[in-house]
TrEMBL record:
Keyword Transmembrane helix belongs to the record: yes
Location(s) in or outside the cell: Cell membrane
SUPFAM superfamilies: MetI-like
GO BP terms: transmembrane transport
Regions that span the bilayer: 12-39, 59-88, 100-124, 144-169, 203-225, 245-268
Highest taxon listed in the record's lineage: Bacteria
Gene Ontology cellular component annotations, sorted alphabetically: plasma membrane
Record has Transport as a keyword: yes
Keywords attached to this entry: Cell membrane, Membrane, Transmembrane, Transmembrane helix, Transport
PANTHER family: ABC TRANSPORTER PERMEASE PROTEIN, INNER MEMBRANE ABC TRANSPORTER PERMEASE PROTEIN YDCU-RELATED-RELATED
ABC transmembrane type-1 domain sequence ranges: 64-268
Descriptive protein name: ABC transporter permease
Membrane topology recorded in Swiss-Prot or TrEMBL: Multi-pass membrane protein
Length: 282
């Protein structure tokens, strides 16, 4: 007698477990996203006028360029600061590594708004840095409401993400590889450059991708720490909604921002594969 196919009971169980998550994502992510997309082409009438206007507006193109350049600068700064820190934590190890990771992660436990106001106090005209410059008799320009202040705040916010991403891969690199290179006559720098650095390259790409995409949508810090000339796209969207009540144009800007983020993901997937981004490929 031929076997009668039966449905795997585990599949139904897994489907029931996933149902709340799927419903949540559909209600609070897919539906609002669809509404934003529809609003961008239907307010006040059905057309692509908002998109035509945006890509013919020099101011919007400038803000878009500023957003990408700022995200790139923040990403590179996080990498230059985070890589040596993560490398030192891995090499020293032990209790120091645990303490260092706790200190790095402490900022993640504080809201962005609190950290932003802290930087406003530190960089303000009566803040400790300005007072130190005045005490030393040094000339100083405006520190707050500049590209420097907004970049500094975003680096402080995103540095833990870069460090944690780098550390998670670096700690899995077998030290025997570097010792073998040293045993074959390579100097410490040569062993690092030819062995450790290539093995940590996936972490570099992952960290840069996550930081860059996150930075594209930053709102609070660029608005409160940056000046008008450093306005980023998320702040411009908020301005269109709160001050001008131009919901259709704001929706079109949101779609452009989403498309930019998806383009970065698509480029990453094309070159490296998204499975590596989530650590599923060694």
């Amino acid at each position: 007698m031929s076997a009668i196919p039966t449905q795997n009971p585990h599949r139904l169980r897994y489907a029931l477990l996933l149902a709340p998550v799927v419903i949540f994502l559909v209600v609070f992510f897919v539906v609002p996203l669809g509404q934003v997309l529809l609003l961008s082409v239907s307010d006040p009438t059905w057309s692509l006028e908002h998109y035509r206007y945006l890509f013919s507006d020099g101011f919007f193109i400038g803000v878009l360029a500023t957003t990408f350049l700022t995200a790139l600068g923040v990403t590179l700064t996080c990498l230059l600061v985070g890589y040596p820190l993560a490398y030192a934590v891995v090499q020293i190890g032990g209790g120091f590594a645990r303490s260092a990771l706790v200190l790095v992660g402490l900022s993640l436990w504080v809201s962005f708004l609190v950290r932003t106001y802290a930087w406003m106090v530190i960089l303000g005209n009566r803040g400790p840095i300005v007072r130190l410059f005045e005490f030393l008799g040094l000339e100083h320009g405006e520190l707050l409401f500049t590209r420097f202040s907004s970049t500094l705040g975003m680096v402080h916010a995103l540095l833990p993400l870069m460090v944690m991403t780098l550390y998670s891969v670096m700690r899995k690199i077998d030290p025997a590889y570097v010792r073998a290179a040293r045993g074959l006559g390579a100097t410490g720098w040569a062993a690092f450059r030819t062995v450790f650095l290539p093995l940590s390259a996936p972490a570099i790409v992952n960290g840069c991708t996550l930081v860059f995409i996150t930075c594209l949508g930053f709102y609070v810090m660029p608005v409160l720490l940056g000046g008008p000339s450093e306005q980023m796209l998320a702040g411009l969207i908020g301005q269109q909604i709160e001050e001008l009540l131009n919901f259709g144009e704001a929706a079109a800007m949101s779609v452009v921002l989403l498309a930019a983020s998806l383009a970065v993901y698509a480029a990453y997937n094309r070159v490296f594969g998204l499975d590596r981004l989530w650590g599923e490929q060694q």
